[in-house]
């Protein structure tokens, strides 16, 4: 049975944005006001990432763009398929990511839930996501593995977006996934180095083009 994210999980994510905890983490990239830290997971030989910074995005619009999966299909070139399997709290989403040839595509069945808070009279949006666990979903909320597509079942992503005034926002992102397969860890880690930062750049461009209906 799908269970909602705990209140404490949202509070921890927001606190992390306000008071970053990077003890034991390595500063990986710093560019355009964004700092990316990484932490090496010995078991998987992969890194997880924390991202902090200020962006030229209106927080309200950024949260809408981040949550709008139909719109994401128009600006994220890596999306092969993205659809709801369940709407509610939390949502269950199916996501297939297009990988460059000759690598196989990856897909995800994951939970996502958002919460809006008010801090210092400004909006703060916390959006939590993680892989669905075995036995957690009803049959109608699942997608059978596809031939030639590798299922990622070790994924998490937290995103906090806070109004920073004058059309800017503070952001915090915590990200990890294990794409499995026969991709060398060094390649996965290189892709993450470029991908985490470029995602925020692309998200900012998508926000500028977003039109409220």
TrEMBL record:
TM spans (from-to): none
Residue ranges of every copy of the START domain listed in the record: 23-212
InterPro entries: START-like_dom_sf (IPR023393), START_lipid-bd_dom (IPR002913), START_lipid_transfer (IPR051213)
One Pfam family matching this protein: START
Top-level taxon of the source organism: Eukaryota
Protein name, UniProt field: START domain-containing protein
